Amino acid sequence: MTDIQTVAGPVDSSGLGRTLVHEHVFVLGEEYRQNYQDDWDEDQKVEQAVHDLNELKALGIDTIMDPTVLGLGRYIPRIKRIAVRTNLNIIVATGLYTFNDLPHQFISRGPGLLIDIEEPLTELFIQDLTKGIGDTGVRAAFLKCAIDAQGLTPGVERTMRAVAQAGVETGAPITVHTHVGSESGLVAQRVLAEEGVDLSRVVIGHAGDSTDLDYLCRLADAGSMLGLDRFGLDAFLPLQQRIDTLVGLVRRGYAESIVVSHDASCFMDFVSVEERPRLGEKWNYRLISTEVIPALLEAGVADRTIETMLVDNPRRYFEGARA
């Protein structure tokens, strides 16, 4: 087995249990929060997160993977406060979330640029994976990058290749935010493979926004796992269509290529509390446990198949070998 770094310390991969592969605890802009979030109550937000995650644990989920990286407000000291008060494993990531340009800290620094140095992004990602994030003592266990409708812009490509290089160097797996409308998962696979990444160690995030089984099977046939990871986010695809897509993939024999999640959070500043239902009335951590699994069983998906998607596939993502 393999030791997996969590916020509370290493856990053997055999002990990850039922795992949701794409959940955020907080999504926010720290600089914005400190200057403009007048109603922010740190203790209250921590209490709410502890409540939500303990509720999720009581529903039978043992681990969440939190791909909150640079660009999404990653702040590990706050996550540590929460982790010590829950038995749910929280696995955090390193990487950079951008659909277009790089942050100004990196625009002029890198190979062939004004400050001509080795790729600083790769160095930072490796540091987070091998030494720890800042002075928190917490190590990331996977990598995250993004490619959306804007496509492979120079900033996106540079980030993706840095993530790939860090993954090859450290053996850490990768999750990619993708955009199904432009089939950007295929572009991500090409770029990552060019850098030597084993595509079986890659989750194509938000693949579940698509009902195109042929596109999804192409991604899976190349080796990657399909992130059916936005259950409840009806603004991108209604719940029943997400369930039907999963069932269709299982019937085609792709259960070993599927991982699931909600892409939910305890708090996000993209939308207000009042606006959030517009994205999905049931968009929360609980939906897979309370509604999706019962719906899958009713559709004829076997218990063992559900365990494959929730337990075996996330474990294999980290271990790098078929179950």
TrEMBL record:
- Name the Gene Ontology molecular function terms of this record: hydrolase activity, acting on ester bonds; zinc ion binding
Chain positions recorded as Zn(2+) 2 binding sites: K144, H177, H206
* In-chain residues carrying the UniProt-annotated modification N6-carboxylysine: K144
Query: Which UniProt keywords are given for this protein, alphabetically ordered?
Result: Hydrolase, Metal-binding
Q: Does the keyword Glycosyltransferase apply?
A: no
- Cofactors that this protein relies on: a divalent metal cation
Q: Which domain of life is it from?
A: Bacteria
Q: Where are the transmembrane segments?
A: none
| Coiled-coil parts of chain | none
The cofactor note reads: Binds 2 divalent metal cations per subunit.
Cite the binding residues for Zn(2+) 1: H22, H24, K144, D263
> What Pfam families does the record tag this protein with?
PTE
Extract the InterPro entries matched here: AryldialkylPase_Zn-BS, Metal_Hydrolase, Phosphotriesterase
Entry annotated with the keyword Cell membrane: no
Per the record, the similarity remark reads: Belongs to the metallo-dependent hydrolases superfamily. Phosphotriesterase family.
Q: What is this protein called?
A: Phosphotriesterase-related protein
